[in-house]
Amino acid sequence: FRSKLWLRVDSKTVVTWLTNKSQGLPEYYSLIQQCHHLLSWADWEVRISHCYREANQVADILANIGTEGCLEVKIFRTPPLAVHEALYADCMGISWPRQIIE
To answer: What is the pTM assigned to this prediction?
Structure first.
C-alpha cells in the first residue's frame, strides 16, 4: 500500500520544474533540488498539477504567511486566524469565479 500525495501548485513554472526534474533558475536551484529529493525520498505516489490561486485560497494565504520575514520552518498546530474565513468558505462549498483569457 503506497500513500498518495497530490501537490497542487498555483505556478505553472514550478509544476514544470518539479515534474521535469528541471533545475529551474539558478537562484532556486537548491530549493528545487530539495523538493526533488523530498518527493522521491518516501515510498509514495506523487501527482503534481497546476491550480489557480482562487481554487486553493488556504494554500495561497499560507504561502503569503511563509514569505513574511523569516526563513525558518513554521509549524501550525491549528489553522492560523488568517485562513479561518477561507477554510469556512471551502467547507461551505463556496467557489470564486475567475475569468481566464487564453
So the answer is: 0.64
C-alpha cell at 96: 470564486
> Residue 97 carries which DSSP code?
-
DSSP string, 21-85: T---SGGGHHHHHHHHHHHHHSSEEEEEEE--GGGGHHHHHHHHHHTSS--S----SS--GGGHH
Any idea what the Cα angle at residue 59 is, between residues 30 and 94, rounded to 5°? 160
pLDDT in tens, 29-87: 888 888 888 888 878 889 999 988 877 888 888 888 877 776 777 778 899 999 999 98
CA angle 95, 65, 94 (to 5 degrees): 10
Burial of 2 (0-12, 13-18, 19+ CB in 10 A): exposed
